[in-house]
Amino acid sequence: MALDRIEKLLESYLEGETSIAEENELKVYFSSLDVAQHLQQYQSLFSYFSKAKEEQFSREILLPTKKKNNLQMWSIAASVVVLLGVGTFMYLENNKSDDFVACSPEDNPELVLQQTQKALALVSEHLNTGIKSVGYINEYEESKNRIFKK
User: Fold this and answer.
1) d(C-alpha 139, C-alpha 102), whole Å
2) pLDDT value at position 24?
3) Do the Cβ atoms of 26 and 6 come closer than 8 Å?
4) What are the angstrom distances between the C-alpha of 112 and each of 89, 106, 107, 120?
């Protein structure tokens, strides 16, 4: 009866379906001197596990020293350059918006006319950029219509 149970446990063990308690039962059986003849081939497997638990690693592990990575230094330098570029761009763009001066027609009509012309030129510049984009969309539509005739 006990031999049948050990054989079933061994089969379950080889399929990876045993619990810790069942594995311990197999270890106890195979560590004893009373192992069936046809199961002695598994005795070395279970004795290896018990011997492996007792082993200690005594050699010293030497870790390589850290060297400064050139890639890391280059990435830091590139980040600084990008930040300086963005900062310069933002500074120059903010200075463009300071060209306009608040004034009223009663104070200086010529200054009001100049400020109005500047504002209209700025609006015209942005409007022309938008019109160019619409032109590209029209070209796309025409090309699409040539390819996919209705």
Assistant:
1) 42
2) 82
3) yes
4) 29, 9, 9, 12
